[in-house]
Amino acid sequence: MIIDLDRFVNREQPRWRELEDLLARLESEPGATLDLQGALRLHHLYQKTGADLAKVKGQSAAPQLVRYLESLVSRAYAEIHENREKRLRFSPRVFFLSTFPRTFRRHIAAFWLSVLVTLAGAAAGGALVRWDPDAKSVLLPFEHLMGSPAERVAREESSGQKLANRPKTYFSSYLMTNNIRVSILTLVTGFAWGLGPLVLLFYNGVVLGAVIYDYCAAGQTRFLVGWLLPHGSFEIPAILLAGQAGFLLGVQLLRGSRHGGAGKRLRAAAPDAAVLIGGITAMLVWAGIVEAFFSQYHYPILPYWFKISFGCVELAALILYLGWAGRGGRRADQVRVAQGGNVNVSQ
Amino acid sequence: MYPSEAHTVTFRTPENLEFSLTLAGPAIRFVAWLIDMLAIAAASSLAAKILAGISIFSQDAAAAAVTLAYFGISVGYGMAMEWFYGGQTLGKRLMRLRVLDAQGLRLRGYQVVIRNLFRFLDMLPASYLVGGVACLFSARCQRLGDMAANTIVIRNPDPGRPDLEKVAAGKFNSFRSYRHLGARLRQQVTPAEAGLAFQALLRRDELEDSQRVDLFKRLREHFSAKAPFPPEAAEGLPDEQYVRNVVDILYR
Predict the structure, then answer these.
(1) Are residues B103 and B195 part of one domain?
(2) DSSP summary character for residue B189
(3) Record: contact B147-A176, CB cut-off 8 A
(4) Among residues B131, B155, B179, which one ends one of the domains?
């Protein structure tokens, strides 16, 4: 029990201020670490402030003081008891050469589910256009895909110079932002027990299938492959990966309470979903550049064999990258431990 | 961790310490979001002005740079601010809010990313309707992004102590000589009761005379029942002065 609150505050305040300053420093530097001495001091201040909180809590004295101490204790608790994976500074090299492809492979089943849903959509889209050619006007959201494929190919092939003068950088940025937005939406709608990615991937597949059938049936397969493959080799897998991330969340919600509460289950999937969306963003930036600056050029400016070969090389590189990058390597945190270093207060 | 009473969440640490944090409701979060929208608009407008310089070389490149900058700022603002400023954006800082891991632990990078990406869903169909409704029905005032990332948004307390000079009993407080009774008073009076007396003194001028007399009379009766000071200390004291002395004892 505290007899003289004023004296108590005056005596303890320097320690509270010291803890406050220490916490402010740690919070302003997400990757900050403390040396052993600093970590011990932090723990000491946390314990002392916790004891002070216990002293003033049962009293009527200054509820604001109680809230202030609760705030300090909660912040210190967050720093000291953080025992999940070590906080590491973000390293693009580690992320792209190890974390992202490894995460992709760890959840390969969700990726195959994305592929399956898209293929089902593509089959449906192709069949719809096959049996009802008028369905094209409903299924295809882009005006340039509405008309006859042969006419479009003739038009594109004869407008080489016009294409060269068309503004491409803005178009590229539009494609990037739009596709990233769609990917994010595919991911977050996974929260609806996976229904969001299911619908979005199926619809994407329907559009893709309708276009493929339309162009192939019109004998324009070579144009189609030369047009789609250079950017599609990254764009389509990126959307499939977004579906994979969305399914990760959805599956966790469907698993049932015997695997823990919904929060716990989501916590298991959310880090990997965040990693996937990071990699997807990079893939879509590349796809946007290729689509605006490369895919729109057709024969005679760029021969089809060159465009198709370029697309095939990209696709092969992507498959190799996602399938093998980071295999056999040590995890980033193991590397960090092996290298030694400061004591991380978050351990 | 468990929701203790309405709008608060209580944590018990392994050291058996218990602390409660006040959860932020949808209304105050909406205000913080409006401030953040203004910040995003200002940052985007500034970026557009700076990037317009590129149009000297290429209009096309300038338009692309502005598009990318706007997208980057609108998506990345929340992530960058919450990551580098301990769970606070500008709006949250001004409204004294903070994002926290639902277990009371420090925010992780993925949590910041996921809760901000989920804004795409929470803001549907407009003005964060989905997120607001989720927040209203969630026991911990979580929007969908908070649920997915396992985070909560708390209200930071005002760390300042009450301004006692406004309500002080004056240089002499006859109750101070009775330290044992002062101690009992502090033990018996709840924080809510102390706060009520404090507010009554602060807002005395807003009350009509008869109401004020009645209020302080009732407060005196209430406090004297908790710790009866001897007649030589309390007798002759007006009710309001009695309450001043009590508040002085409680807070000093």
Answers:
(1) no
(2) S
(3) no
(4) B155
Structural tokens at position B203: 């807002």
- What's the maximum distance between 2 C-alpha atoms anywhere in chain A? 93
Contact B150 A270 (CB under 8 A): yes
Instruction: Tell me the per-residue pLDDT of A288-340, one tens digit each, with 9 for 90 and over.
Output: 999 888 888 888 788 889 999 999 999 999 999 999 988 876 554 444 444 43
- End-to-end CA, chain A: 35
Domain span at residue B195 reads 164-251
Q: What is the pLDDT of residues A44-55, one digit of tens each?
A: 999 899 888 888
Q: Where is the domain boundary, B137, B155, B173?
A: B155
Which candidate, A84, A80, A11, places its Cα nearest to that of A40?
A80
Q: Say yes or no: ipTM exceeds 0.85.
A: no
**Residue A314: other Cβ atoms inside 10 A:** 19
Question: What are B65's two structure tokens?
Answer: 């740079």
Is A64 within 8 Å of B108 when comparing Cβ atoms?
no
One domain, residues B175 and B226:
yes
Q: How many pairs of residues across A and B have Cβ atoms under 8 Å apart?
A: 185
Pair type for strands B2-3 and B8-12: antiparallel
Helices (H), chain A: 5-28, 36-57, 63-80, 92-94, 100-106, 108-131, 136-139, 149-158, 160-165, 169-188, 195-217, 221-254, 262-290, 304-324, 332-339
C-alpha distance from residue B63 to each of A180, A265, B57 (Å): 18, 43, 12
For residues B111 and B172, give the distance between their C-alpha atoms in angstroms, rounded to a whole number.
55
Q: Is A344 on the interface with B (CB under 8 A)?
A: no
